[in-house]
Amino acid sequence: MYRVGIDLGGTNIAVGVVNEDYEIISYTTVPTEARRPAEQVIATMAQAVNTVLEQAGIRVEDCAGIGVGAPGTCDEKNGVVYRSYSMDWTDLPLANMLKEYFPVPVLVDNDANCAALAEVKAGAAKGRENIVLVTLGTGIGSGIVLGGRIYSGLKGNGAEMGHMMLQFEGSRPCFCGRRGCWDAYASATALVHQAEEAAREHPESLLSRLDKIDGKSVFDAADRGDVTAQVVLERYCRYLAVGISNIVNALAPEMILVGGGISRQGDRILTPVREYVAQNCFDKRPEALPVIAPAQMGNEAGIVGAAALAE
Amino acid sequence: MYRVGIDLGGTNIAVGVVNEDYEIISYTTVPTEARRPAEQVIATMAQAVNTVLEQAGIRVEDCAGIGVGAPGTCDEKNGVVYRSYSMDWTDLPLANMLKEYFPVPVLVDNDANCAALAEVKAGAAKGRENIVLVTLGTGIGSGIVLGGRIYSGLKGNGAEMGHMMLQFEGSRPCFCGRRGCWDAYASATALVHQAEEAAREHPESLLSRLDKIDGKSVFDAADRGDVTAQVVLERYCRYLAVGISNIVNALAPEMILVGGGISRQGDRILTPVREYVAQNCFDKRPEALPVIAPAQMGNEAGIVGAAALAE
Question: By the CB < 8 Å criterion, does B227 face chain A?
């Protein structure tokens, strides 16, 4: 049985057909043009689905269903997008609207949740039951899979683990309105902010001589022996580790995956995280420690996870 | 169908038979004498089970099973207590040992998890699917019920929500070895510590004239107009609220119950908590906010929750 996965982003809509092994066998991408009326965006999604079905040489009836990973809060039971800021949608009955084009089940869930499910179906967490995926990007995204299924919480309001407060009424403002959220300390954006601050404080540093600081340039400067960059990274890894320990203590998943561009640094950031967790989490028995590893699905996560919604 | 619940504590073993409505229809309690060999403790448990069966006028075969809530980390699949500090047990096959006395299923889980399950079966969360129970006592205990069942995490290492770090490398040491855990700011013990500190700083306060400060006396002093006590309580409620917001953001349960002696203050502590959560949690839609309420099961939670393990 095949499945169709739609990764709906604010810029592009990526659509693919996956086979039973969750391999993408056909693929297309089209611009979202998110400011259009929702009906038009959904018509474009439907066209793209037809394109990938044709490319794969199958009919939609050969598919268990169509899944959509949407950027926002979703009511997965009813296939409704409660609120998506990037799409400017409120209470949109996305599944029902797309069902008008195709006589198969249409499922909708949050994109970060889909990414976590993709890792369980085909990625670093294949075959695991209880995992958390943490994605370090502009903010910290998170998805929880429990018992092999996405856990979305009350009214889709689940798994915003980046908004656990790490620093009680701390000084760093978070975009959610509080101060001291993990997001404000351990997202990729936060790393860049910390590096920029350090560069200003240390005009002698290599960091301060860069035209522009991004996540990768902090690692590069540290590699070239810049002590300022090394101190920034050490502190950043500690922030990351404390937040991951909080997840371990709160939920004790089997596995915590770290995604996003920074996760390509692999053990360089994950080794200090693992060490901190082993020494500091509540239950220190080695067998009670989760595996902490990089996410594997990369850009495919959205399509594969959305497709996996259709069971 | 009846069920037997055993609430195993470091001091006493409380045992009861519950009916289909989870009402306790017979009850006994015996000293644990925890330093004895485990075999003797279990023999005492078996005797107490026979006592409550006799009192109820039923045979063990009339029961769906026997559940034990144990103070420690449990492998609920195999009925093993991995580690209990209060019992000094390691890897004890409690279910199998108790099964030698009774020809019915014997189930074992952590006592805080059982208390959460009791609230779902017969208490404040009756009929709910996804709830978190937070108990404010010597420390902060927590139990998670998801999909109507206890969520125990990897190797029973789940739901130590008191050990989410609230204050990054904060000044308050936690008994788990870290600094800055929620437990060190919002347990009943933490409230007393904060009141003692405030009493030393404010010798003019009513608090400082008390012979001994306990949780209740802080509330009493505030009632009598003591500004020092009022400030302590306001700060304490904020600590409580931030930790509960972290649970909302991480898991979005339908309901968060607060238990322990302090929860008898009811709305006095829960109203500021609800206000903070409504204003500060990530998803502020009213329908996405959990119900925050006092736990109801009190001393019966242990027996009823343990009994509910037997399905």
Answer: no
